[in-house]
Amino acid sequence: MAWFLLLLAGLFEIGWAVGLKYTDGFTRPMPTVLTVASMIISIVLLGLAVKTLPMGTAYAVWTGIGTVGTVLLGIWLLGDPATSVRLLCIGLIVAGIAGLKLAA
User: Fold this and answer.
1) Of 85, 41, 2, which is closest to residue 93 (Cα–Cα)?
2) Is 62 in a helix, a strand, or coil?
3) Beta carbons of 16 and 26 less than 8 angstroms apart
4) Which pTM value belongs to this model?
5) Residue 9's CB: how many other CB atoms inside 10 A?
6) What pLDDT, on the 0 to 100 scale, is given for residue 86?
7) pLDDT confidence bin for 79, thresholds 50/70/90
């Protein structure tokens, strides 16, 4: 269950990271509310996950999910560049996440 909570926490982290772009500097009310709500949910879920998972592993996986998801959505939604080096680095992050999951 803790890994599932951690996955959800990571997805909400992606939500708030991408949501920051749509808040337009926190001047748009609805995107701002959704972004702040995603931040709170993400942190609460992370807090629940670390009750049973090692803190370092949970935090690294949480930020890894957020990083990979945010970069991929940036490429898909926002037109960020999808260079081979960026994609290779995403692969390395995913490999690190998988390694931490296997080691925990």
Assistant:
1) 85
2) helix
3) no
4) 0.88
5) 24
6) 94
7) very high
**Residue 43: which domain range?**
2-103
Query: Cβ–Cβ contacts within 10 Å for residue 92, how many?
Result: 10
- The number of domains in the chain is 1
What whole-number distance in Å separates Cα of residue 55 and Cα of residue 31?
A: 30
Own/partner contacts of 100-103, CB < 8 Å, gap of 24 or more, are: 100/57, 100/60, 100/61, 100/64, 101/3, 101/57, 101/61, 103/57
pLDDT in tens, 36-73: 999 999 999 999 999 999 999 999 999 999 999 999 99
Secondary structure of residue 25 in the 3-state scheme: coil
| Cα 66 from Cα 43, distance rounded (Å) | 12
Distance of alpha carbon 68 from alpha carbon 89, whole angstroms: 9
